[in-house]
Amino acid sequence: MLFNRKRLFSVLKVLLSLGLALLLFWFLYKDGFADTLERMKQVNYAWVMLSLFFGISAHLIRAFRWNLLLQPTGHNPGVSRSLMALLIGYLVNLLIPRLGEVSRCLVLKRTNNVPVTSSLGTVVSERVLDVICLFMITGITLIIEFDQLSDFFSALFMDKLSSLYALLQEFIWIFLLIPIGILLLWLILEKKVKQTSWWHKLRSLMREIWIGFTSITKLQNAWAFWLSTVVIWVLYYFMSYVVFFAMEPTSHLDWRAGLALLVMGGLAMSAPVQGGIGAFHLLVAGLLIYYKVSKTDGLSFAFLLHSSQMILVLLAGLVAGLAIFYIERKTPEASQSVQVKE
Length: 342
Fold this sequence. Notes:
It is a single chain. The protein is mainly α. It has one domain (25-163, 213-335). It contains 13 helices and no strands. Helix 4 (79-95) packs antiparallel against helix 5, helix 4 (79-95) crosses helix 13 and helix 11 packs antiparallel against helix 12 (279-289). The longest helix is centred in the last third of the chain and has 36 residues, at 295-330.
């Protein structure tokens, strides 16, 4: 019964997330979706194809970087296996947000017997680095494009931040008492908790995840790792920027607008909805208004950029899934771990 309730809660959470994403998408396009589709006939798809090339190149370099992170844990599945696991993870994220991170670890467990806890630790490390990079790029972009972005962020967040500040003032004691209460409860129950079997299992699990997380400090090829990190973000930039030239209303935008687009895209794809649906279109179209692009043209551009990348993820993920299936059928021994040579 408990299992069924948990599964029902998970399903409802996914459906709620998808429902919110589709509702936001419908709200944005309800009056002009037919016009958006008509505008797609006027697109120069050569620039879109170039964007897709940059996108798949970024996925390849990301797989290479992930493989570098896995090596200090004692496993070297290879770039091709890491890439297939990564693409399957992206595909799963289109259905269930954040589950793709676990899914790609499960794929490596199945194909190369890499422990899920170790690979999951590297994924956490990778995501923390991505957040740091996004914050750094956001800071640089705010300096370069202060006028446009300050107006945009003010319009988007200031009212919400004011409401949040008022809420914090009203319930400040509750927010202070909750962590104090948790700390006191832990001090009272600490000895009993540490005697339970699940506590020891949790410690063992966290220890393995920590080994994967700290692999970034034990890199065998640090230069390759940090260089690949820079290359990934450069490719992400051009993946979005070149699509400006695919549509006449955005073809005049320069490299600084491309930086702002990279930031908005990164923030939107971090939203807890499937594939950033709705959130991406809202943020990108809203941003372009501050670059003298009409709301209608901005929504059309956001639809083009987002749809092309989602199609890439869908097709690449399906191909990777078929490749894994073929490899496992042809070579059953492929699931054996490939250990790093000392």
